[in-house]
Fold this sequence. Notes:
The chain is α/β, with parallel strands linked by helices.
Amino acid sequence: MADDLHNLLHDKLKEYFGFTSFKGNQEAVINNVLSGKDTFVLMPTGGGKSLCYQLPAIMSDGMAIVVSPLIALMKNQVDAVRYNSGNESIAHFLNSSLSRVQTKEVKDSVLLGKTKLLYVAPETLSKEDTVEFLSQLHISFFAIDEAHCISEWGHDFRPEYRRLRAAIDNINKKAPVLTLTASATPKVQQDIIKNLKMENAKLFVSSFNRPNLYYEVRPKPADNMQLHKEIIRFIKENPNKSGIIYCLTRKRVEELAELLMVNNIKALPYHAGMDNKTRNENQDKFLMEDVDVIVATIAFGMGIDKPDVRFVIHYDIPKSLESYYQETGRAGRDGGEGRCIAFYSDQDVERLYKFFSDKNMAEQEMANQLIQEMVSYAESSVCRRMNLLKYFGEDYSVENCGCCDNCLNPKERIESKEEMVYVLETILATQQSFKAKVDSLS
């Protein structure tokens, strides 16, 4: 019986997706979903999470509901499923981008019974009319993508995600739930399980290690012009390679994209303040390689299927290590080269603290802890990879990963005689200060 299912899964994998074998835990996850059990999947970016719900949805009776946080992500995945299957009716999405007429067309198509995957935004799923509509359908299972959005300790917390359990219970309490995320610390994992009442779920946890990614933290020049020269030089030294540059503000995204274009670099901006049409066009141009670089806020990239991104640059230090891991994870998804460079300065850290200063005390406390963890990572002189994996609860015993700045350059280089004098004077001053404190205690 097990052999029959194994062969059937491989046949359907080849038929619908063109693959001849599964990666990592994919087959075990799919087996668990098909058996009707709650499933928790923790799999790094590029590990193939989407297949874990797409294939069982196609093979199951009824229709799977996929909760997804981004409109661009839904469109991207629906287009991919339709293309792979050669069937326009197999997948649809419901979100705020659709007009009333378009929403009715989707619902009419779903009622015909040919749809296997319906992607919905968390806000949409909680609406009374959506619950009423879906309650009359045969739901095979619920898949919650980017499940870290549920947790207040996660890097992309979305309050509407915490209302999903109530919506699911109102639609079909008996349908199994599959949660998927690429970045969740043990604390976040427990928060997700508790909120969704998934205490009996089977956990599938893959390694967070992405051995092909090179991690580097560079001091951020105080002079923006100097910083821009450094970024432009790096891109020009890596011609015709796809890359993403993340900035914290929309204004910075626009300015940097324009600067790159002026310097004959094929680049475009992407942020939530742009109209949907332009934003989608820019994303498609990046995917189709009409442009090499996309300059974006954190909204870009979640679930975007572009395997050959060769570099990810953080113009500003991210708000948390989860954000950093998720965003750098968009590089080298094909197993090839992936360079991850983050610029870091005390001024950026001060801005992050200020950004959260108007929040309530509980939110400030959480944000401050996340920022401090990011600061510790950036300022650490030990292996970046070991630091990241330890943060996510995974041991890494290799002494030198050979693929981060701290392992490749374990001793800080002193570039000039003046710098050497400064370093020695600082050490001496620290020693004298310490001696004075000891003497005062004697």
